[in-house]
What we know:
The protein is of the alpha/beta class. The chain has 14 helices and eleven strands.
Amino acid sequence: MTQLNFDKTAEPNVNTTADLAQYLLKPLVIGSRTISNRMVLAPMAGLGHIAFRQLVTGFSGFGLLFTGMCSAKAVPHENPKMSHVFSWRPEELDHTVCQIFGAEPEIMARAAQRVEAEGFFGVDLNFGCSVAAICKKGCGAALLKTPDKAVDIVSAVRKSVSCPVFVKFRTGWRDDQNFPVTMARAFENAGADALTFHPRVAPDRRSRRPKWELIGKVQNAVAIPVFGNGNLFAPEHGIRMIRETGCQGLSIGRMAVAQPWIFARWTKGFRPEPSIYMETALDMARLLSTHYEDHFALKMFKKFAPYFCANFKFSNSILKSLIRAENMNELCDNIRQLMDPPPQTLLLPNINLFI
Ligand SMILES: Cc1cc2nc3c(=O)[nH]c(=O)nc-3n(C[C@H](O)[C@H](O)[C@H](O)COP(=O)(O)O)c2cc1C
């Protein structure tokens, strides 16, 4: 069993937003490395690309950034200059984890070697994605139907790299509380350095409430750090998840797309001004245009827009007007027209737009 690098038995004394920041800023050992901030960007295909990660970096306040999932079959020979997914800025490598998906131990191990050779902080294995196209190939959450194979993948990756190995997984395919606990222990024994656990069964996708109590069970079962994930939208949620589950870190997905400054807000007390919406939307557009050709940049902005517009009182109509654009120039005109003066915002984003 891995040696404990923190006291898992101590109940986290996290009651206020100041306590939350203090907890999130405690160093955490992950395998051979240490991070100084436990609040991380969750992997999100089509959203967590190089441009979005640069946008989040501008606000700072996070510990790690996870890429969207990259095909393990493609990674060993992928050209980062051509790939929309397997691409990065050199300066982000030391705090970025590359997520890979695949179905075979040797293929995942070879991809992990490339990830390590490029200098990423670590590699993350996707055992959580329940999208049909991924599961049909025996990847993502489908591997939770063949637990031995999932564990073989962790062992093979562990043997092939020395950088931190993360595993992201979910409850499984049935509402069985013991299954994620058994899997967590097996992943740890196979050499995983940290787990991100999303407590939903696979067919649920993101529709029903995640069962945070399962994060506590997974956390109690292993000595390695566990990042809790699922429906963290406001600091109160972060406080409650840490108190109720004792998880060592927080992994934030959709809310980080709505508010890329969320990390700075929770860990550094950053207070956004009303002008932040127009500035951030224009920055997102500029960064997408820096990294991608116009057509793809527009496509990626249209994926980002529903989450971002969820901040506004009239989110649906603003979203509709915002994305009525044929190119990035038109899009930037729309941003200026719709966000100056700033639209009325909601206390909590309209999560009906969180698709
Ligand atoms: C558009 C989208 C793409 C996602 N892609 C991935 C992915 O590539 N790999 C992965 O492990 N999880 C993926 N997820 C799941 C998130 O990492 C996360 O588990 C989920 O959104 C719940 O966290 P949240 O409530 O903070 O958003 C994706 C989620 C969304 C919304």
